[in-house]
């Protein structure tokens, strides 16, 4: 039996990943809430941690968007997005560690 693969919007993936990082909820709770397998959420989390939030974005017209927006050399949107992703992950980890320390 062959079924259609489900495709999820970048916004949905981002929402699921962010919710899975919340210390108030477990991965199992997030799986039940969104009806997803833990392996899917774990893969999305890993991709997010490695490449930042834009890993979920649609990249079809990526080159033309960059040219139209006129980014300066050394300030590529990929670099900035990577920095934002890294900072978001660091922020979540700091929040979690602060909660563990009781502050």
From TrEMBL:
Gene3D superfamilies in UniProt: Winged helix-like DNA-binding domain superfamily/Winged helix DNA-binding domain (1.10.10.10)
Origin: domain of life: Bacteria
InterPro entries per the UniProt record, alphabetical: Transposase_8, Trp_repressor/repl_initiator, WH-like_DNA-bd_sf
Region called Disordered, residue ranges: 55-76
GO terms of molecular function: sequence-specific DNA binding; transposase activity
GO biological process: DNA transposition
Name of the protein described by the UniProt record: Transposase
Source organism per UniProt: Dictyobacter alpinus
């Amino acid at each position: 039996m062959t079924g259609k693969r489900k495709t999820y919007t970048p916004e949905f993936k981002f929402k699921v990943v962010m919710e899975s990082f919340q210390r108030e909820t477990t991965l199992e709770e997030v799986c039940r809430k969104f009806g997803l397998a833990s392996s899917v959420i774990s893969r999305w989390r890993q991709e997010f941690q490695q490449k930042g939030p834009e890993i979920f974005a649609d990249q079809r017209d990526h080159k033309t968007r960059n040219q139209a927006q006129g980014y300066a050399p050394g300030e590529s949107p990929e670099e900035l997005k990577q920095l934002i992703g890294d900072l978001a992950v660091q922020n979540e980890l700091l929040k979690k560690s602060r909660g563990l320390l009781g502050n």
